[in-house]
Write a structure and sequence with these properties.
alpha/beta, 6 strands, 45% helix, globular, binds uracil
Length: 183
């Protein structure tokens, strides 16, 4: 299935009740040949309004951190576990994650990225299982024949300067791995 087809499916989706409160579906954006894919938690208010991932304050920080390691936003693929905003940005319910995660798996198949970066605890537990973020961050992890890299969510990095510092150093580890594996 192509990315375009997957994204059309998400826009018609009524697999959970979030379709009733969303303004727009936020399937994700970026290159369909991306070597690196970033997976957040769920769209927030700005994303819900615009239909684009990571365009609010967390998104600005993520974009800045990408540029710091020599990645342009357009050259990677950016998405979240949930494609629709939970009311008042509450944490996604397990039932919502279960309903929505097939779209992320289809996106991974379609893009076939070299590395999938999981941003924060919800992305990590939804995709590879429960890890303590303090142990998980900065690590590469092989799972289901794919390479994952785990780090903090930029929203946490925005709130806590110490996490921001740790996330920046995780991103440097990602840069090194990318340069070793040929860009
Ligand atoms: N946080 C996320 O996890 N995803 C977005 O798209 C925006 C903020």
């Amino acid at each position: 299935m192509t990315l375009r087809e997957i994204h059309a499916q998400t826009r018609r989706c009524r697999r959970c009740h979030l379709h009733k409160t969303r303004l727009n579906v936020v399937p994700g954006e970026g290159s369909s040949n991306a070597k690196v894919m970033f997976v957040g938690e769920a769209p927030g208010a700005e994303e819900d309004k615009s239909g684009r991932p990571f365009v609010g304050r967390s998104g600005e920080l993520l974009t800045e951190m990408l540029e710091e390691i020599g990645l342009q936003r357009e050259s990677v693929f950016i998405t979240s576990v949930l494609k629709c905003r939970p009311p008042r940005n509450r944490t996604p319910l397990v039932s919502e994650i279960e309903a929505c995660i097939p779209y992320l798996h289809r996106q991974i198949e379609a893009i076939n990225p070299r590395i999938i970066v999981l941003l924060g605890g919800v992305a990590i537990s939804s995709v590879i299982g429960p890890w303590k973020l303090s142990d998980a961050h900065g690590r590469f992890y092989e799972h289901d024949g794919r390479t994952f890299f785990m780090t903090y969510h930029p929203a946490a990095a925005l709130r806590f300067p110490k996490i921001r510092t740790v996330m920046r150093s995780d991103m440097q580890a990602l840069r090194e791995e990318l340069s070793m594996s040929g860009g």
